[in-house]
Write a structure and sequence with these properties.
There is one protein chain. With 264 residues, the protein is of the alpha/beta class. Helices cover 23% and strands 31% of the residues. It contains six helices and eleven strands. It has helices spanning 59-68, 101-107, 142-151, 195-201, 218-231, 251-263; strands spanning 13-23, 26-32, 47-52, 73-83, 88-94, 114-118, 132-137, 158-164, 179-185, 210-217, 239-245. The strands form two sheets. A six-stranded antiparallel β-barrel has the order 1-2-5-4-3-6. It has a five-stranded parallel beta sheet with strand order 9-8-7-10-11, sandwiched between helices. Helix 4 packs parallel to helix 5. It is globular, with a radius of gyration of 19 Å. The protein starts with 12 loop residues before the first strand and ends with a helix.
Length: 264
């Protein structure tokens, strides 16, 4: 019996159409590609993988690398906004200087530059049914937290705690009026902070159903997971709580650490 060879999926490459400094430590890059027009509206907050070209690499060389390997540098990001009718999406990058490959790429992004795309993954909160919402994020998770808040019903009630590097990193978020927003300035993000944890620990006892969208540095997330799921008994199915990074580790090392912990 003859078998047809499976065709490779074509490389999914996006082109930069605009870039702006959103706040002192956040850069927004707008990307365009025909395939974005086939993605669903309302997937803000879903994660995706971005494949990054080497400095000076041509688009032809990058496309060949996506098809044939070796795999380019890849990082995980959140879709902040998507406009399928315009075949556009926005990705927000924390500016870490040139130390990180994604930060270095975003800092220099200008129209005509390019990157690869895989995804998207699922939206973190696909339905909203809670009496009270708890949202917490550092700058790495600000896009998913903001997208979640903006998707909530307008009568939602709860609290959102954001930790940013400086006061000017605060962003306008179209959250429901009943979500109480708190912005904490933590100027040394590579030193652990417990201020968001303490603020949530000091909340009154939860009443009714609770949903969470909590993400950020792993040590903070570990403490918040214990508070939300153990001390306050929020069901796992209602609690999105995820470590996006860990002090002292790059993404590949952090992902390996998470897999090892899950297997233990």
């Amino acid at each position: 019996m003859a078998f047809a060879l499976r065709k490779k999926k074509p490389a999914r490459v996006m082109t930069v159409s605009a870039a702006e400094r959103l706040t002192p430590n956040m850069v927004r890059v707008t990307l365009t590609a025909d395939f974005i027009g086939s993605l669903s509206a309302g997937i803000e907050g879903a994660h995706c993988k971005l494949f990054l070209p080497e400095p000076g690499q041509s688009e032809a060389s990058f496309r060949a690398q996506l098809d044939d390997g070796p795999r380019p540098t890849v990082r995980t990001y959140t879709i902040r906004y998507i406009r399928p009718a315009l075949s556009e999406m926005d990705i927000d990058f924390v500016d870490h200087g040139d130390a990180g490959p994604a930060s270095a790429w975003a800092r220099r992004a200008v129209p005509g530059q390019f990157c690869g795309f895989a995804g998207p993954g699922p939206v973190k909160l696909s339905s909203f049914f809670a009496d009270y919402y708890v949202v917490a994020a550092d700058m790495s998770a600000l896009p998913v937290a903001a997208a979640t808040l903006e998707a909530m019903p307008r009568d939602a009630k709860g609290i959102a705690v954001f930790e940013v590097t400086c006061a000017d990193d605060r962003q306008p978020i179209d959250a429901p009026p009943g979500i109480e927003q708190h912005w904490i300035v933590h100027a040394e993000p590579h030193h652990a902070s417990d201020r968001a944890v303490e603020m949530i620990r000091n909340l009154p006892a939860f009443q009714g159903k609770v949903q969470t969208c909590i993400a950020g540095e792993s040590s903070v997330i570990k403490a918040l997971r214990a508070e939300i799921m153990q001390n306050r008994a929020v069901p796992k199915a209602n609690a999105y709580i995820s470590g996006y990074w860990k002090i002292g580790l790059v993404e590949d090392e952090h992902q390996q650490a998470k897999r090892s912990e899950a297997a233990a």
